[in-house]
């Protein structure tokens, strides 16, 4: 079935109907009643017309550069829970813990944790004064030996929820530096205590050397939203995923490798235009898809700038302020450069998230390639007891018989499940826009 034969979806129909309605409101060329008249001398007079309504301010035009640094606007979101100036209520369970003045994200001290030969570091911090069905968390982390995917654990014994909540993130940068993370619920388990609320922060490994600072309790909204993304702008996004998602009226955001558009395995410009017409959007995945954090600063800037310029030049303005870092590779310098062009950045992490984002250039999302895992996260999203209001599922290829990527049958099952449970799906630009309203 070619593009012209695809049935119009509800989203596309509403867009077209809205345009038709707007045209109707402006009047037709042949009014039903002739309201023209004549003055007392018989001369034709113009009928009185109601004043035209004020259309309001036009949306700002997308530009190559943006003003300000979005991280500075959001880093105070939520309520300070642990400022790490004093660690008196932190209970050390394994490894070592000290207040450090050597590194601090804000204030004068941070919590310095090491495994110290114990094979892990683990601390417990009491939690009180929060409704844990409506509270998530964010924190700043600094790791002395980056370069791999790290998986610290942040577990909350939450009697309010009747469950233990397992928050997860993956810390992946290519040089040491402070990064702020919004934690997301990955899964739940049975309560360890029905009476006490506390957080356990841990990290297994013989060489853990880790700093934490500015732990914040973040409010969670109650209306769950789901977002679907694709990385790499591969041809299967159009050939396989697009028709399935059109059937279930689910829109998506495609993070586009602009230097590959039209290649044999990549989307063509015509396909991108058709998808945009159907309600999809296109954001940056850099120009050539190299590991951004491993490039020189000049090369990083060229990758980020050229990709956005291409999108603007080819009529894909709606999502040009958003980027996904290839391979999850970035540094603090990368984010400094990205802040000149983008105000919303993402990479591969784990678990759900919440819409009160405090780190807009390192936003959490979860790979959707395991259908059962994706559907379990959708169930958590829709569970009123669990403090999460947002889930971002991202995909790459949708192809048969691949060890990593999802196959068409599993992808369709996931989209059908989204439709069955009535999850509200939006474009990622709408998530971004909510942060700046």
From TrEMBL:
UniProt keyword NAD, yes or no: no
Pfam families: Polysacc_deac_1
Region of interest (Disordered), residue spans: 26-61
SUPFAM superfamilies: Glycoside hydrolase/deacetylase (SSF88713)
Keyword Methyltransferase assigned: no
PANTHER family according to UniProt: POLY-BETA-1,6-N-ACETYL-D-GLUCOSAMINE N-DEACETYLASE, PTHR34216
Protein name in the entry: Polysaccharide deacetylase family protein
